[in-house]
Design goal:
With 332 residues, the chain is mainly α. 64% of the residues lie in helices and 0% in strands. It has 13 helices and no strands. The radius of gyration is 20 Å and the shape is globular. It starts with 36 loop residues before the first helix and ends in a 15-residue tail after the last helix.
């Protein structure tokens, strides 16, 4: 829950180029350095891995649309502060804002809501594993929608292996007994929504002159507006604001939808998009551990085994990312 906000990536350069400091001729106070990238990588994995636990806790006090609205409000606030500090300008042009509205629907409003509804009936561990199928959906869709993505034996084998892993997770040989079909279907549909949004962004916003941060902040704002318009139609105002679910929703947005995006920008700039993208494969592992240890969810043998097969298949489907292309597609 890529998973996994997926910001519109500009393929021409990383979102946040690494700064350089000229040597000073005289001693100066030491500049404040960011933690080692491995620490930030691990922190990002934890934040996104725990997102599914936070969704589950949030739905214990709020309706799914309310969880999504609170998440988007908190995430938008974090990025708005970052944009103000860096003096980023909002994108210009009605066409750009129109494309951002579509991106906000497929990358934020729809998948966030689907995961929240799914976790009303399925464990957070299963939701986290379903999120790991996004690269598989993305590979299948890109072969049709993107002319530059060519099928190879390696990628086709990865696709087949990945969906074999999905069947293992779902216990297909047992006739899917005990499986909540509606919840699982919504989680898988949420995972499919991300690559649909990525492909749309790639085809429509790749040449935008606005920064990635400005595009992402604007996209989150539009997603917030979309959910704010829908929520009153399907839910009533909450009777109160229970402490734990409220904290979970705020943390889900501020950390998993706001701060995590900024952290990934820094990782892309420092270690490159290929290494930064590896965080995708840690999310379901952490989501599973969090669900079992913290929430006490039950785990049968086929769930972790199938998850490993899914991750192996997803890894095989990925092309090497060309140098200089910032991709931030991992989002729960």
């Amino acid at each position: 829950m890529r998973p996994r906000t997926t910001p519109p990536a500009k393929p021409s350069a990383p979102a946040l180029p690494a700064g350089t400091t000229a040597p000073a001729p005289v001693p100066a106070p030491a500049a404040r350095r960011a933690p080692d990238w491995r620490i930030r990588f691990g922190t990002l994995s934890l934040i996104w891995g725990f997102s599914f636990l936070l969704i589950k806790v949030g739905t214990e006090g709020y309706a799914p649309f309310q969880v999504t609205l609170g998440r988007l409000l908190s995430g938008t606030a974090v990025l708005a502060v970052a944009m103000a500090v860096r003096r980023e300008r909002l994108p210009r042009g009605a066409r750009t804002w129109g494309h951002l509205a579509v991106a906000a629907f497929f990358l934020n409003a729809l998948p966030f809501s689907l995961f929240a509804y799914a976790e009303l009936s399925i464990p957070s561990t299963l939701a986290g594993i379903c999120n790991a199928t996004s690269p598989l959906w993305g590979m299948a869709l890109s072969l049709v929608a993107l002319s530059e993505d060519r099928p190879t034996r390696r990628r086709v084998a990865g696709l087949g292996l990945g969906f074999l892993g999905v069947l293992t997770v779902l216990g297909a040989w047992q006739g899917f007994s005990g499986l909540d079909f509606s919840g699982t279907a919504m989680a898988l549909l949420a995972s499919l929504s991300y690559p649909v949004g990525w492909i749309y962004v790639r085809r429509t916003l790749a040449g935008s002159s606005s920064s990635t941060l400005a595009l992402t902040g604007s996209q989150l704002f539009l997603g917030t507006v979309q959910i704010a318009l829908v929520t009153p139609l399907f839910t009533s105002a909450p009777d109160g604001f229970p402490l734990l679910p409220t904290l979970a929703v705020v943390a889900l947005g501020a950390l998993g939808t706001g701060l995590a995006v900024l952290m990934q920008y820094g990782l892309v700039a420092e270690v490159g998009p290929t290494t930064a993208q590896m965080v995708t494969y840690f999310i379901p592992v952490i989501a599973t551990a969090a669900g079992v240890v913290v929430l006490g969810e039950q785990l049968s043998w086929n769930t972790p085994v199938g998850a490993l097969v899914v991750l192996a298949g997803a890894a095989l489907t990925q092309n090497r990312v060309r140098s200089g292309k910032a991709r931030t597609e991992a989002q729960p």
